[in-house]
Amino acid sequence: MLIVRATKKLLRLAGPSIARDDDRGTTLLGPWYATVLFWRLRIVLLVNETTLLPVLLPLAPKATLSSRIAEQISTALTVRQAPAAFVDQERQHMQTAQLGVTANRSVVGVMTEFARLAEIHRHDDPTVDLVELAVRLAATPCSPLYSRNVSPDRELAATLQSITA
Q1: What one-character DSSP code corresponds to residue 102?
Q2: Pairing of strands 43-48, 32-37
Q3: Average pLDDT in the 96-113 region?
Q4: Do residues 33 and 52 touch, judged by C-beta distance below 8 A?
Q5: pTM
Q6: Among positive and negative, which fits the CA dihedral 138, 144, 150, 155?
Q7: What pLDDT is recorded for position 149?
Q8: Distance separating alpha carbons of residues 99 and 15, to the nearest angstrom
Q9: Which of 1, 12, 52, 71 is most buried when burial is the number of CB atoms within 10 A of its CB?
Q10: What does each C-alpha distance from 80 to 9, 157, 163 come to in angstroms?
Q11: How far, rounded to the nearest angstrom, does the alpha carbon of residue 109 sit from its chain's CA centroid?
Q12: Res 67: pLDDT
């Protein structure tokens, strides 16, 4: 099961909170945090609690959001050259998703910074697609990762190496 810790803004649009505060889900990467970006087309910004890896996808249609989250996370992992077996295993665990309220202020802060950076990148290049934009964001140094691997893309690589070793 995938746990998505959503901001109040996203919960108002996507549905009520179901997950308990102590739910971690069954995915190896752990919970994901999410908020909505109010661009011309509303966008969901997801950030993994463990690696701080960002993922972007359109909010609409809301009825299929949970299944599209799983697909977009799988795409993001594939783009970052995660082993196919790992991506398939994560996708299996993400077939069921539950929304919950945010519980980690540090991740919410990183998500806020990613939202600002995404807006800047989008302003500089309005034609950039969401996957490419997320790749750019993943290379951003994040203070919670300074003592480890500095940026989400490097943190993901190190996490994958420890999981698949």
Answers
A1: -
A2: antiparallel
A3: 93
A4: no
A5: 0.93
A6: negative
A7: 92
A8: 8
A9: 52
A10: 29, 8, 15
A11: 14
A12: 84
